[in-house]
Amino acid sequence: MEGQLGLIWEQARAPVIVPLLRLSVILCLIMSLMLLVERVYMGVVIVFVKLFGRKPEKRYKWEPMKEDMEMGNSNFPMVLVQIPMYNEKEVYQLSIGAACGLSWPSDRIIIQVLDDSTDPTIKDLVEQECRRWASKGINIKYEIRDNRVGYKAGALKEGMKHSYVRQCDYVAIFDADFQPGPDYLWRSIPFLVHNPDIALVQARWKFVNADECLMTRMQEMSLDYHFKVEQEMGSSTYAFFGFNGTAGLWRIDALNDAGGWKDRTTVEDMDLAVRASLKGWKFVYLGGLKVKSELPSTLKAFRYQQHRWSCGPANLFRKMAVEIARNKKVSAWKKFYLIYSFFLVRKIVGHLVTFIFYCVIMPATLFVPEVQVPKWGAVYVPSLITLLNAVGTPRSLHLLVFWILFENVMSLHRTKAMLIGLLEAGNVNEWVVTEKLGDALKIKSGAKTLKKPRVRAGERVHLLELGVGVYLFFCGCYDLAYGNNRYFIYLFLQSIAFFIVGFGYVGIFVPSSQ
Length: 514
Known about the structure:
The protein has helices spanning 2-52, 56-59, 92-100, 120-134, 151-159, 184-194, 214-237, 252-257, 268-278, 299-326, 332-364, 375-390, 400-423, 440-445, 457-460, 463-482, 488-502; strands spanning 79-85, 109-115, 140-143, 170-173, 198-207, 248-251, 282-293. By secondary structure, it is α/β, with parallel strands linked by helices. A seven-stranded mixed β-sheet has the order 3-2-1-4-6-5-7, with helices on both faces. Helix 3 (92-100) packs parallel to helix 4 and helix 9 (268-278) runs parallel beside helix 10 (299-326). The protein is globular and about 90 Å long. The model is unreliable at 443-453 (pLDDT under 50).
C-alpha cells in the first residue's frame, strides 16, 4: 500500500503537483502584496491625519447646539433612539438605563426598545424596565412583533413604521450591550445639523471586558486597528466606511433615501452604508467619542459573531459589485475604493492569505523542494503586516505572538464563512445573536475559581481546527527530520494553537444556572 502511494506521488509530482503548488505560491504572494500595500497606504493616511490634525470638527462645520430663547426646545432636532434586543437578560438594564440617561431635551427624544425576545420571562422583565423609566417621565416605547423576520434588520425596519417616528429627524442605534455616555448626542448631532450632506456619525467602541481573558485581549487588538485605522482612514479620505451597526447616529432622510433596512445579508448595517454612499451621502467617524460595549468572551459566541462578520460582507459583495461599478453618482475613484480596497482586499483576500497561504500552502512546500517561497514573502511581508496591525493597541504588543497564532486559527473559520457568503451556499443567512454576559459571570461565580459546566463534546470540539492542527504538526515533524530552516518552530506552535481552539480551551467557561 505504501509503495503504491509512493508511486502515485512520484508520477503526479512533476506534471501536476509542482506546477499547481508553484501557481498557488505565486497567487498567494500577489495577494500578500495587495494586503501589504493596503496596510501601508492606510498607515500613511493615518500618519497624515495625526500630523496635520485633520479632525472631523475641522473638516466639517461643527458648532455646539444652543437653546433659542424664542423657540425654546423646538430649536433642537427630534431624536429617536432604537435599542434592538433578543433575550438579553444579562444586559437589558444597562442599555436601557444608558439610553434613558442621554442628555437631551426630554420632549425632543424618544427611546424605542425593540424586543424580539422569545423567552416570556425576559420579555416581562424588559417591559417592566421600560415602564419603570416611563414612570420617571422618560418618553420610552416598548415595541414587540409576532415574528423575527429579518432578525435585527427586520426589527429596525418595523420600528421605523410607527407613527411617532415621523416627527423624528435622526435615529441613534445601540445594541443591547452598548452604553452611550450622557454627552453622546451633544457631540454627534451638530455634524448632522450643520452639514446637510452627512448621513451618518459613527462613534468608536470601548470594550469594558477587554481584560477578561486572553481571547478578549486578542479581539481588542483586532478591533482597535479596525477603528483607529480602517474607520479613521475611510472617514478622512472617502467620507465612507462600513457602519458598525451600533453606536451610530443616522439622518432619517438619508436612511430612507438609501432604501431603508434590508435583510438580504447578515450585515444589514454594511448593506445600508454602501447603498447610502452610492446615493452620494457622506459619513463621519468620531474616534474621540467612545461608547462602552462588551466583547464576546466565550468561544462559541465569538465563532458565531465571526461567521456573521465574514460571511455577510462576502455575500454583500456578490450582490452589489455590479451595482457599485455601474453607479453614476459617485466618482470612479470611490467606486474603485469600494470594490478593491473595502471589499476585495479586506473582506476576501485578507482571509484567504492568512489561512490558505500561511496554514496550507507554505507548509505544503516542505514536501516539494522544487517550489520555494521567497524569504520576503515568508517572513518580511507577514511581519510588516502584523506590525502595522498591532499599532492600534500598544499596551498589547507583548501579546503579539499569541495574537498571530490566534488570528491564523480563526482564519480557518473566517475563510469558510467567507466562501459560504461568496458562493451563497449553506447557512449563508444564518443569524445567531452574540451572547452577552454583562455582570452575570461575576454574580454567578461569587469567587475567583469557576466551576466548569458540563459541555457536550460536540459543542466544544471543532474537527476542522483539529484536522489542520494534525496537518501542521505532521509538517513540523517532517521539517524537523529533513528540513534545514527551522520552520518547524512555527509549525509546532501553530499546530498547538489549532489544537487548543479545536478542543475549545479558549475564552471563559460560563457556569450554568442551578
